[in-house]
Amino acid sequence: MRKQIVAGNWKMNKNVQESTQLANEIVNGVKDLTLDNTRVIVTPTFVNISEVVKVTEGSAVEVAAQNMHQAKSGAYTGEISAEMLTSLGLKSVILGHSERREYFGETDAILAEKVNSALANGLEVIFCFGEVLEDRKSNNHFNVVESQIKNGLFHLPADAWKNIVLAYEPVWAIGTGETASPEQAQEMHAFIRKIVAAKYNVELAENVSILYGGSVKPGNAKEIFSKVDVDGGLIGGAALNSADFLALVQSF
Ligand SMILES: O=C(CO)COP(=O)(O)O
């Protein structure tokens, strides 16, 4: 059975005190939940990872990073390597978020390198992709998503996919309050599974968790998560307070 995942992408929010407080509230909140098949992940900013790791140790809450550099080490001022993340005990990293693609010039080629570096270091990759509004309006969204997945991931051998989680985040729905309808999310997720099955095989495609991201809130999560090919969410705004985030964790 595929894992369900609720991952909070804290983006550039929360100082160290706020981060540890939020993590504490989430750790306490999940204590009494039967999570069964659901993974709960939080992703603080780099500077707050160590403190949040301490708070979450021994709990059901996993900590992941929002990004990393593709190089092993060296003269890359301001950057963070995969090995630095694993040395903190992290198991996963988000790569390819649309904000990284748009504001930091991360191309498909760079992302493929980042994916390789993360996997080589034993990290699971939560790989994000999604179309902008123009693409959806011109009915080009399937092509865009296919090419982002193909260029970022299809060079991988099948066995590497056990460490891949996909996150479909239509850019027009991120932080806008506008959500893809559950039907639009399901349609895209089914398409994604189909292209992964065509490249690899049906079993592999059936085993990949595909998250939806874009204005997921307690009020709409149940309906979105109920779709057969939606395995959870990558959450921005609603991950910044524990009550909303814990409600999402219980929305399956
Ligand atoms: O970008 C997102 C998660 O990575 C989604 O952000 P919002 O939930 O704020 O729309």
TrEMBL record:
Coiled-coil regions, chain positions: none
Catalytic activity line of the entry: D-glyceraldehyde 3-phosphate = dihydroxyacetone phosphate
EC nos: 5.3.1.1
Enzyme class: isomerase
Record has Cytoplasm as a keyword: yes
Keywords, alphabetical: Cytoplasm, Gluconeogenesis, Glycolysis, Isomerase
Active site per the UniProt annotation: 97 (electrophile), 169 (proton acceptor)
HAMAP family cross-referenced by the UniProt entry: TIM_B
Protein name per its UniProtKB record: Triosephosphate isomerase
Protein's organism: Lutibacter holmesii
Organism lineage: Bacteria, Pseudomonadati, Bacteroidota, Flavobacteriia, Flavobacteriales
